[in-house]
Amino acid sequence: MTTVTDPGPTLEATSKKKLRSRVGGIVVTVFLLLIALISLIPFIAILIGTFQDGNAVIRNGMSFNIDWLALSFRNYVMLFTDSGLYFSWFANSMILTVVYVACTLLVSSFVAYGLAMYDFKGKTAAFIAVLLILTVPFEMLMLPLYNQVNKMDMDNTFTIVILPFLASAVTIFFFRQYLLGIPKDIIEAGRIDGVSEFGIFFRLIVPIAKPAYAAMAILNGMTCWNNFLWPLLVLRDANKFTLPIGLNTLLTPYGNNYELLIIGSFFSLIPILILFIAFQRFFVEGMTAGAVKG
Q1: pLDDT: is 20 or 261 the higher one?
Q2: Torsion sign over Cα 35, 38, 39, 44
Q3: Does an H or E element contain 165, and which?
Q4: Among residues 45, 53, 56, 78, which one has the least CA distance to residue 264?
Q5: Which residue of 51, 73, 252, 294 pairs with 180 in a disulfide if CB–CB is 3.0 to 4.6 A?
Q6: Of 52, 35, 36, which Cα lies nearest the Cα of 266?
Q7: In the predicted model, is pLDDT for residue 137 greater than 80?
């Protein structure tokens, strides 16, 4: 009896498969480039607006029908020579964002580490409380929190801008989901080697969770940098205003400084862009891991 052997895929079929794969890759690449270009349109529009007269931009709207002869560096000269408190606002936002991100990541990861790695009475109830906090909008907590701040006489300070949000429910939930994917054997091995509990966290867990820290650094950084409502309620001194509040004060019933508003808004995008570029190689990994582990 003769056995028929399978000749396998022919050369022609293999070539067609490679061609389809290559064409599919090109189509996906072109599609993603198109999406990227569309996403960049607002950024390019505001960049062009920084070289135009502010009143003309507001009156006619931002468009790519540009009078190239009318473009000038006048707004940039004004920004660096006669912008008032702009750079104070910028510095305030930078300081608050750096401190907020560092403290929030530390506190929230501590809480999440306890919920993920330790067994204690009330653990489930504590996690349910975190989930319930996620469902409560800030607008419901705003007035009670503001009254508490006034009673504590802590208004008009940078501390109170940050303090109520150090244990972020979203960040705690994300870190917990990520840390659940880390084997507890690592902790036991550290204890056997005589490492303290804080040593286990900082020397073993933190290096493993770098993608999660990077993802949360970007999201929390954006949240703090763009935060408007809470700082508006608690800050009184113009020298302590954050950038969003300061830019909002440029629009008044007595006159509008559109030039500084436009170029100031453009420069406010730069720190977040730098933050994302610095951590982008960890961002996708961290978001994906945090979404599927648990």
Answers
A1: 261
A2: positive
A3: none
A4: 78
A5: 294
A6: 52
A7: yes
